[in-house]
Amino acid sequence: AQKITQTQPGMFVQEKEAVTLDCTYDTSDQSYGLFWYKQPSSGEMIFLIYQGSYDEQNATEGRYSLNFQKARKSTNLVISASQLGDSAMYFCAMSLDRGSTLGRLYFGRGTQLTVWP
Amino acid sequence: DVKVTQSSRYLVKRTGEKVFLECVQDMDHENMFWYRQDPGLGLRLIYFSYDVKMKEKGDIPEGYSVSREKKERFSLILESASTNQTSMYLCASLPSGTYTGELFFGEGSRLTVL
Hints:
Oligomer: heterodimer
Helix content of chain A: under 10%
Largest sheet of chain A: 6 strands, mixed
Distance between the termini of chain B: 37 Å
């Protein structure tokens, strides 16, 4: 069974500081994808960043980057230079690269990030 | 931009009522999904569909059914709503041939069953 664990229910960070959100995963598959989504209070899920299990480089997208450690099965999200608008719930998710199951994501419980001035 | 539209943002229904949650996407995506979101549990997959008239069960299909008569529309049906189905429901779509499997989500439908 696939499992995603986010151990931080809530995190606080001051504006302009960096913050790391933790995520570990468990799967016996060798080929998989890892995602982070942001959910503001409005409810919409916003895709942030993706890492494939065979990607050798850590993924980066603007202020978002991943600290992907395959051997430890962790994919931590790093947000640099936090902004007030980053306050939201953040979800880590995984999909298995089995063709027909693409899009079938397994989600963690989420981390509520609060950025204070 | 991909647009996934869920017909109702907020619904209040009574126990035993039949409930329809509608989802429409405008980007000709083959794949559509219904997730349920509960505090402390994250998102869980209810049903998904890879083509018109095709459906597959996700992780928590009990108490739900779906309909996909047209490519752009994917409906979630609660035949007889119960209070434990009070939740946020999120629809998503995905084009075939995508490499990453990034889902495009709607804004969600918050259902309360009294």
